[in-house]
Amino acid sequence: MKRLSELAPGQKAIIHSFENDEIFLKLMEMGCVPGEEVLMEMQAPLGDPISIKVAGYQLSLRLEEAESILVDTNKNQ
């Protein structure tokens, strides 16, 4: 299990769960639901924000938000 913020650009993973209940609903509304595949597209030069592809569209997340999303990379190896 990894955090979404730990993925390298180009790496895929499956969303497993969320650690932060405060942003859980916000992330779910944006398509970040458990079981959904996510692709880490790129990271800003200073590391924040990151750009991911999820549910067929691009999404920018703050690093703090990405750290609260747990992903499973084993299913995509």
TrEMBL record:
Q: Where is the Ferrous iron transporter FeoA-like domain?
A: 2-73
Could you tell me which Pfam families the record lists for this protein?
FeoA
Q: Which SMART domains match?
A: FeoA
Keyword Iron found: yes
A single GO molecular-function term is: transition metal ion binding
Alphabetically sorted, this entry's keywords are: Iron
Q: Which domain of life is it from?
A: Bacteria
Annotated protein name in UniProt: Ferrous iron transport protein A
| Listed Gene3D superfamilies | 2.30.30.90
InterPro entries annotated for this entry?
A: Fe-transptr_FeoA-like, FeoA, FeoA_core_dom, Transcriptional_repressor_C
